[in-house]
Write a structure and sequence with these properties.
This protein is an alpha+beta fold and about 500 residues long. It is built from 16 helices and 15 strands. Strands 1, 6, 7, 8, 9 and 10 form a six-stranded mixed sheet that branches. The longest helix is centred in the middle third of the chain and has 27 residues.
Length: about 500
């Protein structure tokens, strides 16, 4: 029988040169070189007042090294980073075998604000010095991520007042029941539990009342509509995503097309991407040239945004909602859509009931009479109506015909709410006196040159978010408050940019 040497993996004392564990060409070596030789870390000195007395502080450069390298591996938890500094030889080398406590790491990340913005600017300067920024095109995109906030604690002032009323009423009933049962032979532990529950409901109602007193007004959106507030993180927002509604923030990034360097990163507590285009564009003006092209998808499109970009003479291609329908390159995009997960839903997808479309209604061009599929005549209630720049004639059914009609389910999307059917027949483009900014943008993006230039956006920005979301496992923000979340988002974008520097041999 063959005999083999025993492999011993038990702990032992070894003479290890920690600095040699940071191999040239690796991300860890690039971070170490940057923070030791390139970055100006004197900006952290003002936060410490231990010149004459007090304990020595951990060097900010060392804390940044372990945090950035941990983020690069998808480790965000301060306890997880502390464990790496005790057990992983690379992190032992980065920290100089100092093993900072997790509370130190958490406090350091939470207190970063202006410093991380200055560090981001220093990395951009180094990227520019290495020739990694081309300034030909900046692609803007964002990602909506949940944060450390409870979705159940989100609502308007009216919602919170209603909740407080319900909690106070429940607490009163429990207390009345408790007093009525005082004379009865109830088990002491059950009576005590009932009393504690009533007190808990009262405390929660008092917290709601205090929140309402501290916030006398509802949050307002950019268009003046009431926006829901959150009591655990007032800066976060409830936003719809492809995987449901989340409570969190939107991380936005502007990416240079030459080497996919992130030149601007911001986090905002809103799901409306239209509000975020102009702040990002204006923040990147120092990096841009007069010929720099800005590109963004349809989520950032609005007439107001296009008007402001034109007013500031900013070269941009912003897609509209109908851009893909007009572009023949996307005619087969439906087959690439994600199919339902068979492990999630075993039921066959329900087919939507086919409803009558405008083509099913007949219009006599000679008399102008419109008839529905049931044979009833609709009356004309608008001859020169303009919708999205197109001229239309509108027709509407009557109550006496539509309400008793047996084909309401096939004609109306919500027959229980909508009383009559309306239909419009378009007659071409309206003769407006002035061309809108949206029309100009459509003409620019539909041209052959516009298609070619906008087509570069996908290869520029999508891999960047794929790297952050998949490779770095960024699936949520772990902090609360816009400033702290913005700091965490910038740290992840810093990791991406330093990877670009390492890939191009910086610091070797």
């Amino acid at each position: 029988m063959a005999r083999y040497k025993a492999i011993d993996t038990s702990p032992r004392f070894l003479a290890v040169d920690l600095e040699k564990q940071l191999l040239p060409g690796s991300f860890e070596h690039a971070v170490h070189h940057l923070l030791e030789h390139e970055f100006d870390l004197s900006l952290f000195d003002t936060r410490y007042r231990n010149d004459q007395s007090g304990a020595c502080a951990y060097p900010p450069g060392m804390l940044l090294k372990v945090i950035l390298c941990a983020y690069a591996q998808g480790v965000v938890s301060s306890r997880g980073i502390e464990r790496l500094c005790r057990e992983h030889v690379t992190f032992i080398a980065l920290s100089g075998d100092s093993a900072p406590h997790f509370t130190t790491l958490a406090a350091f990340v939470s207190s970063l604000d202006e410093e991380v913005a200055q560090l981001f600017a220093q990395v951009l300067y180094l990227c520019d010095r290495q020739g990694l920024i081309g300034r030909e095109m900046f692609a803007i995109d964002g990602v909506k991520l949940p944060s450390n906030a409870s979705k159940a604690r989100s609502g308007t002032r009216a919602d919170f007042a209603h909740q407080a009323d319900k909690l106070e009423a429940a607490a009163r009933k429990m207390l009345e029941r408790h007093r009525a049962n005082d004379s009865l032979p109830v088990e002491p532990d059950l009576a005590e539990k009932s009393r504690q529950k009533a007190e808990s409901l009262g405390r929660e109602a008092a917290e709601l009342r205090q929140w309402l007193a501290d916030h006398p007004k509802d949050r307002k959106g950019s268009k003046g509509a009431i926006r829901k507030s959150n009591r655990t993180d007032p800066d976060s927002a409830k936003m719809a995503t492809g995987k449901g509604v989340i409570q969190g923030f939107t991380g936005v990034a502007a990416v240079d097309a030459k080497n996919q360097v992130i030149i601007e990163a911001q986090a905002h507590g809103t799901g409306s991407e239209q509000e975020l285009l102009l702040p990002v564009v204006r923040a990147t003006q120092a990096q841009a040239t007069p010929d720099t092209l800005y590109t963004a998808d349809a989520g950032y499109h609005s007439e107001r945004n296009l008007k402001e970009l034109a007013k500031e003479n900013i070269n941009a291609l912003i897609a509209d909602n109908g851009m893909r329908q007009r572009d023949e390159r996307f005619k087969d995009q439906g087959k690439h859509k994600q199919k339902p997960d068979p492990l999630y839903d075993k039921a066959h997808p329900k087919k939507a009931a086919k409803r009558y479309r405008p083509q099913d209604f007949t219009l006599d061009p000679a008399t102008g009479i419109c008839s529905c599929p049931a044979g009833k005549q609709l009356y004309r209630n608008g001859t020169n109506c303009i919708h999205n720049g197109r001229l239309a004639t509108k027709y509407s059914g009557t109550l006496r015909d539509c309400l008793p009609c047996e084909q309401r389910a096939k004609c109306l999307r919500t027959p229980e709410k909508t009383q009559v059917r309306q239909v419009a027949f378009f007659r071409g483009k309206a003769n407006t006196t002035e061309e809108s900014h949206t029309d100009r943008m459509k003409r620019a993006i539909d041209s052959e040159e516009g298609k070619a230039r906008y087509g570069r956006r996908f290869a520029t920005v999508e891999p960047v978010f794929g790297n952050l979301r998949h490779n770095k496992r960024l699936d949520r923000f772990t902090l609360r408050g816009r400033k702290k979340v913005d700091t965490q988002w910038k740290l992840y974008c810093l990791v991406h940019n330093i990877e670009k520097l390492a890939h191009h041999g910086f610091g070797q």
